[in-house]
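Posting for a labmate who doesn't have an account.
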Amino acid sequence: LDEQDKTGVAANGRTTTYIFNITSLARPTNTGYYQSPAKSIDHNQYVLGGLSYQSNYNSGLRIVDVRSAEADPTGKSFRQVGFFDCHPEDDSVGGIVEFSGSWSVYPYFRSGYILLNSIERGVFALKYTG
């Protein structure tokens, strides 16, 4: 069910975040999903203060506002509020589904800085100001 397998809703190659209600750990329920505007493979995702910081290989860091999840668990109200593309070589074709670019992201510094680790280019120190 991911971008590279080309199955399910991710068959279009867009990074897909699946939303689950885990009120019952014995019976988690898939309630919806969010898709990035760019084609890429998702890797790591961290939620802090209602924002999801997503490390998506070729499309880099994507910051998605997920504060609406409780009121609308379908994901239709999620919206991208920021991004930093550390692998712009594939932008002209809307992204490529392969393992290049961003490896991980770390948004937990008190200073507000975000570290983005790129496979090819090293570490970027970023700050979201939105």
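Reply:
Got it, the structure tokens are right above this. The mean pLDDT is 91.
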